[in-house]
Specification:
Number of helices: 7
Shape: globular
Strand content: under 5%
Helix content: 55-70%
Distance between the termini: 48 Å
Mean pLDDT: 95
Number of strands: 0
Low-confidence stretches: none
Length: about 160
């Protein structure tokens, strides 16, 4: 039975399994939020690594994500289908770059990233509307992650 208008059978294919956030993107409500939540355990795995390794893994996830998201968008016939949430995972990694490990920072980072991803202030909305394919799917969340990261680091610095 399809969830979020995505055939469940797509989860059997590794590309779609990843782009659909291990199934979190199939949520009928707020799939982007569930996709971001799916990023938290992955973040907890890479957070203890050196800054170089964290950055390398995030960059690899971004580059691979362009391919993953484009393949799933093509399979579904919809550009940036809401079930595609690999971009949220990468956006959360960007948000949390060099942030101390503590539940309160994870929560604040989560909320900031979701805010920028949902509200889409300029240039996020512009990118979302004008950049196509896997690059477009990933790029608006990369910028949302950068905005959220800046906000989170400002909070860390001042509080």
């Amino acid at each position: 039975m399809p969830r979020n208008n995505v055939p469940i059978r797509l989860l059997k294919h590794p590309v779609h399994f990843l782009s659909l956030g291990f199934g979190s993107g199939l949520s009928p409500y707020a799939p982007g939020t569930f996709g971001t939540a799916a990023a938290i355990p992955l973040y907890l795995l890479i957070q203890p690594l050196s800054t170089s390794w964290y950055l390398l893994i995030t960059l690899a996830a971004l580059i691979i994500g362009v391919y993953l998201c484009e393949q799933t968008a093509n399979a579904l016939g919809v550009h940036d289908h809401s079930g595609i949430v690999w971009d949220e995972i990468v956006g959360f990694f960007i948000t949390m770059f060099t942030v101390p490990l503590d539940w309160k920072w994870i929560l604040i980072g989560f909320l900031l990233f979701r805010f920028f991803d949902i509200v889409k202030p300029w240039p996020i909305r512009w990118i979302d509307a004008r950049v196509s394919g896997g690059t477009g799917i990933m790029l608006d969340d990369v910028v949302a992650g950068l905005f959220a990261s800046i906000g989170l680091h400002l909070i860390l610095y001042y509080f």
